[in-house]
Amino acid sequence: MPPRPSFRESLATKGVFTITYELVPGRSTRLREFRKIIRFVEDASQDHRLHGVSITENAGGHPALSPEILGREIKAAGLDPILHFSCKDKNRNQIESTLFARDREGLHNLLIITGDYPRYGFMGKAKPVFDLDAVHLLRLISAMEKGFELPEEAPGGGVKLPPMPFFKGCVVSPFKRYEAELLPQYYKLHRKVAAGAHFVITQVGFDARKFHELLLYMKEESLDVPLLGSVLVMDYRLAKIIFRGVVPGVRISRAFMARVEKEEEKWGPKAALIRAAKLIAVLKGMGYKGVHICGAKPVYQDIIFLLEKAQEFFSHWQEFVGEFQDSPPDTFYLYRKDPESGLNLPERNERANAARAPFSLLFNCFLHDLFFEPGKAFYPQAKKLASKISGSRLEPLFTKLEYSLKKFLFDCERCGDCTLGELAFLCPQSQCAKGLLNGPCGGSQDGYCEVYPEKRCLYVRVYERLKALGKEEKLKEGFIPPRDWNLAGTSSWLNFYLGRDHHRHFSSPK
Ligand code: SF4
C-alpha cells in the first residue's frame, strides 16, 4: 500500500485528488455512536484513501463533544485531523487560548467558519458570541503562524511568540440564488484568502454549474488556493430534513427530494452513495483539487464503496452533469451557460442594472465626505473640535446627542466603533444577527437571514446600496477590524477623530 500523504501534502502535490471525510461527534463518548466513530477511525487508518478527517464543532448550533478529543484519537491512529473552528461560542481571548492549546497538541489543521447561530442550550438558548468573524480569525491565526507580536500594553507584552504552524481553510457558498446574495460571498472569499486561508471548501449543493462557476471565478480572480467541493451523502431521511429548510444555507427542491426517494426505492441504502460518487466524478472532472465528504454514516465500508464507484464513473463524468442541476429557475449565474457541457463558458453574464440610490443614502455619503474624509472639507475643523470636546464636561452631552440622532437614523447600538461609512450606512450591530463586519455568513436563504427569516440579509442590502453607488467591489478590498469593546457606549465620532476606533489599524484612515 502506498504511503498516505498528509492533508497538507495532498493539497500541495500535483495529481493528487484530496479526499476528506467529515465526522459529526455527538454529545457523549459513552454512547454507541461514539464507539462507531472510533471504529470508523480504526478502519480508515488501515487504508490509504482518506487524506484528512474533519470534525465539526457544535454543528447546527447545538452543544457536542469538543472536536480536539476526536482530533487526538484520529492523530494517534495515524490519520490527519482537520478541526472545525467557529466564531460562535468563543470571544477572541478564548479563541486565542484555544489556538495555543491546538498548537501544543499538534492539531494544526483548522477549518475556519462563522458558525451556525447557537440554538438549544442548557435551560434556554445559548448566548451567541461572534466576537470575531471568519476574516478576523484567519488574520489572527496568520499572525500566530508568523510569530505573534504581543503589543507593549498587553500583559507580558513586547515580545514575539515563536511561530505556530497552523494550516487553515475557509468555506464559501456558490449556491446562492440572487446576484446580491452570491457576489458578497465571492467578495468575502477575497478577504479570506488575503487573510491567509490556505484552502477553500464549498458549501453543500447539488448544482454542477454552480460548482463550476466558483472554480472559474477563482481562476479568473487569481484566488490561487486549492478548492475542495463538498459532497453530501444524502439519503431520503436527510433530504426531507434539508427540504424543510432547517439546515442553514442548504436547500434542495421538491423534485430533487422526489428523485432521492425514487432512487432509494430502486437501489436501497446504496442510492445516496451512488449519487455522491457521481458528484465526486463530476467535481474531479471539472478540475476540483479534491472533495470533502459529509453526511455519510461512519461506516468505512461505505466510503470504500463510494470511492470505488467514483473511480468507475470518472472516465465518463460529463454524463452526470445533467443530474446535478438543482437550483431554482431564476438563479443568477455569473457566467454564460455552455450548452454543450451544461457548465459555464468563461464569459460573464450581463448583470442587472443597479437600482437608483435612495436620497437618504446619497445625503449620508455627502455628509460623510464633508466631515469624515481625512484632509477634506470640514475634516480639520471637526477634528479640532473633537479634541476640545473629548474629556471636557461637554462630552456626555455630545455623546447623548450623537446616539439619539444615530438611533433614530440607523438603529444605532452605541458600539463606539462605527462602520456605517464602510457598509453603505447600514449598522451591522443592530441589523446582522451575528454582527458580521466583513461579509455574509453562508446561512442566508433566498436573500433572507438565517436567524430572522423575515429580514433580508444585511449584506444583500449593503451590496445593493453599494452597487447603486457603483462601489460594490469595495466589499472585496481590505477588511474591517473587529469591534473594540473598550469603546462601547463612548462617542464614535470622537473616537474616529481622535484615532481610537478601528481606523487606527490602518496607516492611513479609510
Ligand atoms: S456601527 Fe456602532 S456606532 Fe455605528 S451605527 Fe452601528 S452601533 Fe452605532
Main attributes?
globular; eight-stranded parallel beta barrel; 510 residues; two-stranded antiparallel ribbon; TIM Barrel; binds iron/sulfur cluster; 10 strands
Question: Mind explaining what this structure looks like?
Answer:
- The chain is built from 17 helices and 10 strands.
- It has 510 residues and is of the alpha/beta class.
- The chain has an 8-stranded parallel β-barrel with strand order 1-2-3-4-5-6-7-8, surrounded by 4 helices.
- β2, α3 and β3 (81-86) form a beta-alpha-beta unit.
- The longest helix is centred in the middle third of the chain and has 16 residues, at 179-194.
- The chain is globular, with a radius of gyration of 24 Å.
- It starts with 6 loop residues before the first helix and ends in a 13-residue tail after the last helix.
- The structure holds iron/sulfur cluster.
- Residues 406, 410, 412-415, 418-420, 427, 429, 492 line the site of iron/sulfur cluster.
